[in-house]
Design brief:
The protein is of the alpha/beta class. The protein has a single domain, classed as Spore Coat Polysaccharide Biosynthesis Protein SpsA, Chain A (Alpha-Beta Complex), CATH 3.90.550. It is 33% helix and 24% strand. The protein has a 9-stranded mixed sheet with strand order 5-4-1-6-11-8-12-10-9. The chain has a two-stranded antiparallel sheet with strand order 2-3. The chain has a two-stranded antiparallel sheet with strand order 7-13. A hairpin with a 2-residue loop joins β9 and β10. α10 packs across α11. The longest helix has 14 residues. It is globular, with a radius of gyration of 20 Å. Bound molecules: uridine 5'-triphosphate.
Length: 294
């Protein structure tokens, strides 16, 4: 009998300051920045919903209320769109609503790091496996990144993280995996180091902002140990699970965009623009125009 518990909950840490996008993020949360026709937070909500997630946990902070309101039912807007016969827009707005009783929030008073943000959600997570999705990281693919990870988790159990290769000179920007056995797209995680210098990095395989973790990680997070950048790092607590629980990385299918950096954000808008059925061909023309004017 398979005793792997299903993943029903996903945590969305959205309490960061988004300093790289100032002044755009002075009042507006970074996670409301749009890629294509929807904000980052809606992209990742849809990815989680498609992966079978039933409870959506937002770790929010000051000036972040807009993130919850985005998923509200908006009667006046719906009525106006209906009267004007804008059925396609009506459908899009409907898709951005979260069914009642599915959204849960907790607050992180001080942005002390990703690990601390997850610890703030401990009561809502409880004693079951859970997913974490960072809205900064988008993966463009027909089958969402989290759906792919859930498939791996259902087979292997334990912990599963999304991974991809990065240039060696960039290892100091990411969590880096010490790799054990490799089996196609699935790798065994032997160790994890947060932001190592290129000469100390155990590999060039980095962690992307998608995780399926066992609740024991919360016990390690409760120690409030600070790591790289003097922040309470999730990577450090995940590393402590290795050895006592299965831990795998998935080299997912799809194009990853780091929307938390200005360049990655622009690239994502190009990528999603090109993939858009309505305007993709025109976006391609625009890019051609710019390239030919070099
Ligand atoms: P980042 O470190 O990329 O976000 O965290 P940031 O700190 O908001 O951005 P910069 O570096 O100042 O531009 C990745 C995700 O984790 C959340 C952020 O909101 C973002 O979605 N986060 C980060 C928290 O919720 N709490 C934290 O203490 C740190």
């Amino acid at each position: 009998m398979n005793d792997i518990k299903p993943v029903r909950k996903a945590v969305f840490p959205v309490a960061g300051l988004g300093t790289r996008f100032l002044p755009a993020t002075k009042v507006m949360p970074k996670e409301m920045l749009p890629i294509g026709d929807r904000p980052l937070i809606q992209h990742v909500y849809e990815e989680a919903r498609d992966a079978g997630i039933e409870e959506f946990i937002f770790v929010t902070g000051r000036h972040k209320n807009m993130l919850q309101e985005h998923f509200d039912y908006q009667p006046e807007l719906m009525k106006t769109l209906k009267t004007r016969g804008k059925d396609d827009m009506l459908e899009k707005v409907r898709d951005s609503e979260m069914p009642e009783g599915k959204l849960f929030t907790t607050r992180q008073a001080k942005p002390l790091g990703l690990g601390h943000a997850i610890w703030c959600a401990r009561k809502l997570i409880g004693d079951e496996p859970f997913a974490i999705i960072l809205p900064d990281d988008l993966v463009l693919n027909d089958t969402g990144c989290l759906s792919q990870m859930v498939e791996t988790y259902n087979e292997k159990g334990g912990n599963v993280i999304a991974v991809k290769d990065v240039p060696r000179e960039e290892t100091n920007k990411y969590g880096i995996v010490d790799i054990g056995k490799e089996d196609g797209k699935i790798i065994e995680v032997k160790g994890l180091v947060e932001k190592p210098d290129a000469d100390k990095a155990p590999s060039t395989t980095s962690v992307v902002g998608r995780y399926i973790l066992q609740p024991e990680v919360l016990d390690y997070l409760a120690a409030f140990e600070t790591g790289a950048g003097n922040e309470i790092q999730l990577t450090d607590s995940m590393a402590k699970l290795i050895g006592s629980q299965a831990f795998h990385g998935l080299k997912f299918d799809g194009k990853h965009y780091d929307c938390g950096s200005r360049l990655g954000f622009i690239e994502a808008n190009i990528g999603y623009g090109l993939a858009d059925k309505k305007i993709g061909a025109q976006v391609k023309e625009i890019i051609k125009d710019y390239s030919s004017n070099d």
